[in-house]
Amino acid sequence: MAADPLSRVFSALADPTRRDMVARLAVADATVNELAAPYDVTVQAVSKHLKVLEEAGLVSRTREAQRRPVHLEAKVFDLMTKWIERYRLQAEERYRRLDDVLRAMPDDVEATPPTARRQTGAPT
Amino acid sequence: MTTTRAHETEITVDPNVPLVRITREFDAPPQKVFRAHTDPELVVQWLGPRRHEMRIDHFDCRTGGSYRYVHASDGNEYGFHGCFHEVRPSELLIQTFTFEGEPDGVALERMLFEDLGGGRTRLTSTSLVDSFEARDAFVASGMEEGVREGYERLDELLAG
Q: Looking at this predicted complex, what is its ipTM?
């Protein structure tokens, strides 16, 4: 299992079946059998996917109820996706400024500025 | 997990190694994208965060060279420095990166410039640090709630 919460959540969500399960749980709680129904896999395989989601803190199961419905921990999901989305948007903003710089550059430009072409090796 | 947007920045958080990968395509050939990363007069126009003034102390973008720049905002200054480990025009840029507020920390950054043809370039940028905690702090930096507060909230949720 991955070492930290962010890695656990993102490796848990790297699998398309688990992403689909999370999307369905975002609508309503469901039992393991209900979750397994649309897939061409065994209930055991779905239980394994659920274990990964549970260890990442993304879903929980009620201990008391007989049906033990699976519940999406939306706050954990939102927190982790917010971190990564914020980071992504910062990079995208930076690269949009770079788009503008690239548009303003002449086409026949060299790959490095003259100062970087004086010589290679240690700086003088 | 990868977040996907057409032609927009993609972020990948590696589950096995403490690195973050950023991928983006540009409507410009590799030599222009490379020049924008190696020419201090161009770097200053896009690299700094919004609402910060970027001031370059020195920027000697050659294999074995080094750089230092400062982001200034509301009277506060944040310094960053590193070394250019490999500068291969239009192809590859490998450098180190240190935030002077945490001088013991260093990221190894690798930027690969891929020629997609038709005047387009794919830039793949990876930042490798020495712990998952440092990587997560990196990703969560700039959040209103820092990584520690985020973990505390997560612990509460996991406990509840």
A: 0.82
